[in-house]
Amino acid sequence: MREAESSLGAIQNLTEYQRQLDMDGCHVGVSRQALDEVLAYVARLQEANGILEDALQEVGDDYPGSSCQEWCRQQVKLASAILKGERDAS
Q1: pLDDT tens sequence across 12-29
Q2: What is the DSSP letter of 89?
Q3: Which of 4, 69, 71, 90 is packed most tightly, with the most Cβ within 10 A?
């Protein structure tokens, strides 16, 4: 849980403490440490998601044609859509 709290702090830092670098506000300056922490956290989330996708696939394949297999496939599809930004997590 501590890791998630640290990452949330870094996310807050990136969203709330930006320094405008140009007139249009297209370029902003942020903390390098906050950026590095968030990017590392995203990489870990992607790795964890892959592990869970594989586990759901394995469980679903143990029960071919079952409602369990269908549910597992739906969950993997939903997670993939969220990662691609095609669907909100809510």
Answers
A1: 888 888 889 999 988 989
A2: -
A3: 69
